[in-house]
Write the structure tokens for this entry.
Amino acid sequence: MTPRVRFASLAVASTLVGWTMAGIAQPPRPQAAPRPGDARGRLTIDTLVDIRHPSTPVWSRDSRLVAFIWERAGVANLYLVPADGSARPIPLTTDGEPTTGIFWSADSRTVHFMRVATLMQVPADGREPPRPVWAQAAGRNLTPSRDGTRVAYLSGGPGGGGRGERVPGGAPGGEGAPRPAGPTEIRIRSLADGTDRLIASVDGPVSGIAWSGDGESLTFFGGPGPQVIRHEQTPAYSGAKIIYTITETVPPRSAQTYIVPASGGSPRPFDAGPTGGLGGRGGAASRWLDASHFLSERVVDFKRREIYVGDTTGGEPKLVHREVKPTFWSMTGAAQGGPQASPNGKWIALLSDRDGWDHLYVLPAAGGEAVQITKGQFEAWRPAWSPDGSQIAFDANDALNPGSRHLYVATIGTDPLPAKVTMITSGRGADTTAQWSPDGKKLIYQHTDPQNSADLWVVDATMAGAKPMRLTDSMPPGIDRAAFVEPQLVHYPGADGAPVPAYLFVPKGLDRAKKHPAIVWIHGDGVNQNYDGWHVERNYAVYYSFHQYLLQQGYVVIAPDYRGSIGYGSAWREGVYMDVGGKDFRDAALSATYLKTLPYVDSGRIGVWGLSYGGFFTLLGVTEMPAVFRAAVDVAGVADYAMYYEDPYHGGWTVSRIGTPDQNPRVYAQASPLSHVDKLVRPLLILHGTADVNVPYLHSVRLIDELLKKGKGPLVEFMAYPGEFHYFTREHVLRDAWARVSAFFDKHLRG
């Protein structure tokens, strides 16, 4: 389906690049027999665990290779693949240890990455194992230059060790037991020959070291860094033996920003702007307009967004863009809508929802009005400047099918009005997160669709009609992709009659003359959505995978995009304002009413489950509508929003939407399934990881205690996963969780 997309420009390219999965060149892979136990190529819980997810692609500087992370069940390794798809990916690491900070050497022959505080290197041919770049750790806060030839770092100072020293009782580089306070050294080490040079010596602590836009200077914070406060809780309903901790990070109030030449010299203070740093969402490189001017962004009182241009040579930051929301600033960070400077320093790109939809805008770096590049009832996300600063790649969804996304390129040239916008990809599924190759010719991106989970693809953005090239295949061998059920976009009346979009999944070959069990899946986050196929995020893709498993067991599945979901404009997204747990919950719960209109669904065998915010809705569903759902599964759901407000990690999120408990007691009362668990009459399974920080494990502890007090113990099953976070990742946890949920639904919906 071709997206019905309108652009604000006067000249819109009409070229469409058409492709189908069958027509795309794919890397060769050996034919594999189906796994034992799934002779027909159907999904099993074992194969669910084997589905991988790629992320963090990094181009080599010659645009020929791509390094990326490939994760399976929480174990991630570094891989390398040719950008032309001529060979399958090869692993550069195999131990599954955390890998961060990936960058390429200047000659594109070596991949560098961080392992905790150690800088590692591995040849791009994969013939040698990774090894440390230097025999001893250089120091802390290692930060590579943009050209990949040097590394800046800190040594000594309060709590830090000297160069290459191992602090007794701690890790290399001075991250263990504190030493007597002394000056902090800012140093630069060459990756070519290992030469090391002192750039500046600063009395007191230093943090936030970064390279300037031209690579000729370093910026840093002098003075106290962020304060980490550890809160401890021992609530009576849990007992005094177990302590629950919350870590709160308080930004520094008195830190000063400095700049110092990379050749050495005296640090010079400058005003970093109201954000307190070289802020703005996006990579550090996108913040610099030139050698001395940079972008920063802040959101004030959850409503007012401001963008500034700062100057390291002196003077106050200049306000260049402001917009105010009557509700709250709701654009999710996944949109990457913060200000980005064009590499040539002429323009600033940003996203704004001032007309009700997230759209691309460009304003002159020298000042002036922002020009709207895209326009229509769709959302343009994740803008990325081409290396020469003349084009912006972005992905946008389809007005008729908001779960479908494709890539576009806006050519700005010397004037954003009119901009020329070209559609780069089409077909079914979601194409997201495009990154330009260094030569400015190709885009690497992530693609998902009804037959394929997330994979990396490359397309030539300079050739009309160029076919995308597949680089990875994350599905385990032997899977029959033709057995996957494609989502169907439907609508049903919501809480106030507004149409609620949802994706309906009906098993293939279902006997529609009979009644079958059905399951409502409620996504989490609030600001999230379902997609036309596999979810683009790993953390929700695992649930989409499990739903395909349930479909092959004969369940009908529906996934609503209740108000508060992204992809449908800011009015729908902000429909939760001062009403969390109100219309948004009823939007989701009324999907059961829609299911009852389907002649092949048994209205007495409808289950519900959800993660996080979806778990919160699940708990509301079985307490406010106790007879609607036959069985329910709450995965790490919020039990009470007053508890959520009290958590320093989430207080801001809560206040931005519903204020404080004192300001809006009615809203907090409706957002508390904990307060009416006495109404529970149907079986409830609760799953939660003990290391959860998104929704603290304490929510489920208190929920269980209250359920027991109300005599609901016989209806409740509970499984705690030691050490697991909010999104289940580890193999043994995934196996147990999926088997447990499958058995629970089978018992109560099929038994």
